[in-house]
Design goal:
Blueprint lengths: L10 H16 L5 H13 L3 H8 L30 H24 L7 H17 L35
Length: 168
């Protein structure tokens, strides 16, 4: 789809442009007065052309620059503490909640046979097996993620998805 400056701007377009203006102000490309004036115009913009006019004389920037390009060349080593990740905490928390609900139902029902072990036992055994072997709780091997949650080797997105800024 070709760039049309007359398309109505969305709130997301305005927010993205405001973020870009903040970055340019922080980099020293805009004085506080210019920044304030442009920010007011961006939030009052009706079309993407109005937004683009406030960014036109500024260079395109990568909003999520990595600190060092060398970091992306080699995947990070997964630490031996991967058992204590958020995914594992969530998996064990789910197992514990279901097990406790089953135990409460069993206790309230008055049945003497501990049927809840048929739920908690196999599920817990599978979880322990995956935990010991270092598998991810959702299956497979854990993916290597950067500190921002992106998969290693995936390029971060900058302002290229703002209408009219792709070619700058």
């Amino acid at each position: 789809m070709a760039y049309d400056p007359n398309i109505r701007a969305s709130d997301a377009d305005r927010d993205k442009a405001a973020t870009l203006l903040r970055e340019h102000h922080a980099a020293g490309r805009l004085t506080p007065e210019e920044f304030s004036e442009r920010l007011d115009k961006v939030f009052a913009a009706k079309t993407v052309g109005d937004i683009d006019s406030q960014l036109r004389d500024l260079p395109s920037i990568d909003m999520y620059r990595l600190p060092d390009a060398a970091l992306t060349r080699h995947p990070r080593q997964v630490s031996s503490r991967r058992r204590h990740t958020e995914a594992w905490r969530a998996a064990w928390g789910g197992w514990l909640c279901v097990t406790l609900v089953c135990i409460v139902i069993w206790a309230l029902s008055g049945l003497g046979y501990p049927w809840w072990l048929w739920v908690a036992g196999p599920w817990g055994a599978i979880m322990v097996g995956r935990w010991v072997t270092g598998s991810h709780p959702q299956g497979g091997q854990p993916s290597v993620h950067g500190s921002d949650g992106q998969e290693q080797g995936q390029l971060p997105r900058g302002d290229e998805d703002l209408p009219g800024r792709a070619g700058h």
